[in-house]
Specification:
Order of helices and strands: EEHHHHHHEHHHHEH
CATH class of the largest domain: Mainly Alpha
Low-confidence stretches: none
Radius of gyration: 34 Å
Helix content: 40-55%
Largest sheet: 2 strands, antiparallel
Strand order of the largest sheet: 1-2
Mean pLDDT: 88
CATH topology of the largest domain: Cytochrome Bc1 Complex, Chain D, domain 2
Strand content: under 5%
Oligomer: single chain
Shape: elongated
Length: 287
Amino acid sequence: MSDKHDPYKVKDTGHEWDGIKELDNPPPRWWMIGMHISWITAVIYCILFPSIPLVNRSTEGLLAWTQVKKLEKEFAEVEAMRAPYDEKLLAMSPEDIMKNAELSNFVQGSARVLFGDNCAPCHGAGGAGGPDFPVLADDEWLYGGAVETIVETIADGREGMMPAHGTLLTKEELDDVVNYVVGLSQGKLHEKGRVVFMGESPGEAVCFGCHGEDAKGMPDMGAPNLADGIWRFSGTEEGIRHTITHGVNDGEDDMTRKAIMPAFAEKLSETQIKKLAVLVHQFGGGQ
């Protein structure tokens, strides 16, 4: 290990293999210095920082430093920077916020964290939507895209309802109305399906009562537009048939579609809800 020792004068360990003897050289000085620095540093670290695990906790160390405390300090610094802006937002309506360029930019930045924590698991990053959850980045709004309406949706939640029609229609009527709905977004008219849709067939379906005579929906009821090719669940023939057959939030049908937006009024502050409303409004262009 060292070229300062004459291998013929150094005591060996008695181990020899294939003519090679294992010598008993002392380790180099730099190696010994490094070893001592290492254990001294470890002892100092144990004294200053949390390190030794106990039964229910660990030693705190003289500095009592933890990553949690560091994170809390950083959060407090961020909140202190946001506080003046949040005070202004509290006294302003969402419309006024959008008219103020500085506050609008602030909301766009700070609300993305809120959206990621509370909305993205269902609606996807950037409002791109998810399986069976509405897209927020288009111009199709179930309940209306005015920013005040978006505030109501976030605060109070939404729970639409469409009755299951599987037992109300014959198989032929169900086929006809499915073909009618499929054809709406394709510019095709299925006359027999229109008769069922308008409630003029022997069956008990009166679809226009919620979706309108032109099938373009009624925001007051959360009834979607069926003529624009944008689908809440599935736009395939099989998907549309499932929705008509089993309905939406129909508690009497085990196969019904589930469409419940939880209320966030008790979880988020008024200012946070305003921020999210402005952000979501910008996602889809608003109304």
